[in-house]
Amino acid sequence: MANPKGRFGKSRTRKRRATWKIETPALARCPKCHATKMPHRVCPECGYYDGREVVAVEEEKKKKKEA
Ligand SMILES: [Zn+2]
What we know:
Helix content: 25-40%
Bound molecules: zinc ion
Number of helices: 2
Strand content: 5-15%
């Protein structure tokens, strides 16, 4: 007796695999330096969160921003 090669055909499998989307990561703007950052996260540019500096940013990075 003839047996099917698989449960689903190649076409069905490939169609399913072709229709996924990349989720865009959530973006928020830093209220201090207006750089894009992740929500509920300390800003990587200025180290601020909730209106105060939480994390000290390296001097080199700060100087680049000011110049
Ligand atoms: Zn910032």
